[in-house]
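I keep forgetting this: the sequence line spells out the residues, with the fold written below as integer tokens. I include a record here:
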Amino acid sequence: MRRLLIIMALLVASLFVLAFVVAFAGIHLLGGIENWQQWLDDHAGHFFVWRLCLYAAVLAVWPWVRRRRLARDPQSHRQLRRVEVLGVLAIVLSEASNWLRLH
């Protein structure tokens, strides 16, 4: 369990570093924060399609993960349902926030 937490922490830290490097490079290549923000706004539709593809991939894999979890711990049905509801709620709220910011 401890090893898994360390791996997850390293993965999250790596993603933050990658996001920082991409943002820094974008700001540098486009000549400033305003140009970077404009580029992000201009390509918001592409990022939305990318996020939809990620959501579809998670949705495609989720039944396998769910079956495996229930096979290991049949009593975890309520926990899984809570994770599913909170995950969908987080996605909907995040996308609604993005939509409201752009419109």
Observations:
- The CA atoms of residues 91 and 97 lie 10 Å apart.
